């Protein structure tokens, strides 16, 4: 859980981008990374297969510098979307503070979106996290594709967003909607920051 | 809350700056509300609860005697 540590004066939050394979999770992180000023650019770790699909996970440490006297870090992760990497997804979800669910807007991918969302809920429950209360934001990606190939935002929202959480249309490959999504989940996570249980913890 | 795809490459340079501004504001609010440092309140005075045995000095010859006394 994210904590404001008054001892070390640090704030660290872990945000995971979840969703089916090829929905654009890595593309989201790549756009964020591309927009970082040089002095803030850490190292984005990305492990991809030969076909550019995420093999394990991506990790982007986002060092925001000192804000209100606190060294602030956001750790952005993606999970591998492919079904057979279930163990990795569970591992990446450990200690998560907020989730961005990146759905593929293509009509033919609707079943994969639903399956991935169910997988997310099951894995959160396994980690002892309540999917009903964990900060969650929906992103409907690939809105730049021809309208005939994609579901409407309303259709996607009615099918996937039963918690009525904030949702964003995006075309991450061009950067559209990426920072709006990140800003929303970051705000939700920060709203749940808690003070440390004991001095110096 | 839906947002359209509205940002083009020409204003992407400001995306991170906008993000930072929002996050900084959010953190400032949160840090202030959670600050465990006690706020000094000059109007509030310390009160001392009187202890029944205050002022009574008891002496024991050794630690064992004191332990027996207190346990009894």
Walkthrough of the structure:
The complex is a heterodimer of chains A (201) and B (72). Chain A is of the alpha/beta class and 201 residues long. Chain A has a single domain (3-191), classed as Rossmann fold. Chain A is 29% helix and 27% strand. In chain A, strands 1, 2, 3, 4, 5, 6, 7 and 8 form an eight-stranded mixed beta sheet that branches. The model of chain A has no long low-confidence stretch (mean pLDDT 89). Helix content of chain B is 40%, strand content 0%. Chain B has helices at 15-34, 63-71. Chain B is rod-shaped, with a radius of gyration of 31 Å. In chain B, 10% of the residues are buried. Chain A binds chain B through residues 4, 6, 11, 35-37, 40, 64, 67-70, 72, 143-144, 153, 157, 166-171, 174-180, 182-184, 186-187, 190-191, 193-196, and chain B through 1-7, 9, 12-13, 15-16, 18-20, 22-24, 26-28, 30-32, 34-37.
